[in-house]
Amino acid sequence: MSNENKKNKPDCPLVGQDGNIYNLVGIASKTLKRNGMAAEASEMTEKVFNSGSYMEALGIIGEYVNITSVDEYDDQDEDPEMSM
């Protein structure tokens, strides 16, 4: 991934979500796609599912999105799915 993309990582409210890695990678992937980063979403998903551990998978997700808290989005209507 290029340095330009790393600087422009979209915010993704994962803290406070169900910690299942499939759920987290799905949320992160949707966030990337909504921000015009479908190629990065596919790349991230492949890397996560080829990772050797949960912590490694979380680290990979963090390379692609800024992991934020669901609580930070309480006052925003940015993504109603995140408030489920």
Features:
single chain, mainly alpha, two-stranded parallel sheet, 11% strand, disordered N terminus
Write structural notes for this entry:
The protein has a two-stranded parallel ribbon with strand order 1-2. It is mainly α and 84 residues long. Mean pLDDT is 84; it is low at 1-5 and 75-84. 50% of the residues lie in helices and 11% in strands. It has helices spanning 3-7, 21-34, 38-49, 54-64; strands at residues 11-15, 66-69. It has four helices and two strands. Helix 2 runs parallel beside helix 4 (54-64).
Strand order of the largest sheet: 1-2
Shape: globular
The portion of residues forming beta strands comes to: 5-15%
Helix content: 40-55%
* Average pLDDT number: 84
Distance between the termini: 31 Å
Question: What is the count of DSSP helices, taking H or I runs of 4+ residues?
Answer: 4
Q: Uncertain segments of ≥5 residues (pLDDT<50)?
A: 1-5, 75-84
From the alpha carbons, calculate the radius of gyration and give it in angstroms.
12 Å
Broad structural category: mainly alpha
- DSSP summary, beta strand count: 2
- Sheet with the most strands? 2 strands, parallel
H/E series: HEHHHE
